[in-house]
Amino acid sequence: MCLAVPGQVKDIFEAGGTRMGRVNFGGITKEVCLAYLPDIRVGDYTIVHVGFAISKIDEESAEKTLQMFHDLGLLEEELGGVT
Amino acid sequence: MKYLNEFRDGETAQKLFREIARVTTKPWALMEVCGGQTHSIIRNGIDQLLPAGIELIHGPGCPVCVTPLEMIDKALAIASKPGVIFSSFGDMLRVPGSEKDLFRIKGEGADVRIVYSPLDALKIARENAGRQVVFFGIGFETTAPANAMAVSLAAKERLDNFSVLISHVLVPPAMEAIMTSPINRVQAFLAAGHVCSVMGYWQYPLLAERHGVPVVITGFEPLDVLDGIRRAVIQLEAGTHEVENAYGRVVSFEGNKPAQEMLARVFEVTDRVWRGIGMIPKSGWRLSREYRDYDAEYRFEVSGLVTKESPLCRSGEVLQGAIKPTECPAFGTVCTPRSPLGATMVSSEGACAAYYNYGRFVNIVDMAIA
Question: Where are the domains of chain A?
Fold first, then answer.
């Protein structure tokens, strides 16, 4: 139910006074309500749930997490190699 | 897809499994709150690859599963009224009411329509001015901003033929109820990442402190779930109970402010019955006074309903983590996703449906003995 999918904002427009946009999900484009993300720009990534963008993806944080995964266990492996 | 595939990498998953095994010295019981996380765990076999002694208790975070039976019966009563178009997310259609479900009455001639978004229901209302269009507004804090927006737009446009049957539930009061339950075994929470993307996680330090329970905000991809488990186990082993964010790319401490402002305007907190669990104080939202004209419960006369739950179904115990789905005698025999006795067998996020769909017909313990 709380499934939300990441996609990239392709364009932004107004429809009946509501901030809308088209979001690309790996090749499939859908119309999405952007009213809750007033600062999101074309090219940004967002998480979309039932037709609403609810959070802008923090790309820096994503990179940090992936780097942390990469570094994980490196120290132990090195120490393990010594003993 | 970017921000999906990187968080599904098999080699990194193995590394995280090794890390979890390295930091684990004692048995621990962790609850993943959200049904989406349960789905990810069972689908990817995460629970079967963890060190023996790390148990994942599946939480009540499946809105379809906990929508009270009385509300399903109300939906059925409203949808059966002549001239009504009843719209709903697809997974509500097979949820058993006392006697029927929405699919059944659709087959009998009721105009029940599946929509992807509440904005689609609004569109149906605009196109059918002469008919009453009702949307079944269920969900946790993740879905509530969408439903609130639909109501707000309807009021703005004076769409008088639109109304919503609201049954929203809130996650933090449920976590509180779990921790104070006499049958509780939960020692750490993997909190629901998308709920927190809307609400932030400023609500949790108090809960963590009061119950001495670590809370790790956790995402849904396999690596997200594994990192949540890793962080929770590290805390349990160290005897700490901090609130940690393992889903920083999506969740911030304060959450989505514009969405929270809309929620505060459109909804007000109410006591809510959770199917299979019972009444949890202040655990739901209903429409605020300002928007009550759009409340289907007020618009349509639906009272005098007598609810009847299946005597065989043990979904309440499953939802509270007291038993695993396979411990219910009805599981996979008289209760299947095609003819479910309880809502946990309906939604793809219900623990029973996840176990059934991924072929978990026996307990891991039983398999080990065999």
Answer: 5-79
Q: Distance (Å, rounded) from C-alpha B79 to C-alpha B77?
A: 6
Q: Do A72 and B19 touch (CB under 8 A)?
A: yes
- Per-residue pLDDT tens digits for B71-94: 999 999 999 999 999 999 998 999
Determine the topology of domain A5-79 in CATH: SH3 type barrels. (2.30.30)
* H helix runs in chain B, sequence order: 10-23, 35-43, 46-49, 63-66, 69-79, 102-107, 118-127, 144-157, 171-180, 193-199, 204-211, 222-238, 257-266, 296-299, 315-319, 351-357, 364-369
Residue B170 CA to residue B149 CA, distance in Å, equals 18
pLDDT digits (tens, 9 = 90+) for A11-60: 999 998 999 999 999 999 999 999 999 999 999 999 999 999 999 999 99
Give the integer Cα–Cα distance in Å for B118 and B103. 19
Q: Give me the residue spans of the domains in chain B.
A: 1-311, 315-357
**Nearest CB partner across the interface for B195, out of A2, A8, A52:** A2
Q: Is A15 an 8 Å CB contact of chain B? A: no
Interchain pair A54, B259: CB under 8 A: yes
Compute CA A61 distance to the chain's CA centroid, rounded to the nearest angstrom: 10
* Chain A residue nearest residue B139, CA to CA: A1
Cα separation, B226 vs B228, whole angstroms: 5
In terms of CA atoms, which chain A residue is nearest residue B142?
A2
The architecture of the domain spanning B1-311 is 3-Layer(aba) Sandwich (3.40)
Neighboring chain A residues of B140 at a CB cutoff of 8 Å: 1-2
* E strand or H helix that includes residue B321: none
Size of interface A-B (CB pairs under 8 A): 132
pTM of the model: 0.93
ipTM: 0.92
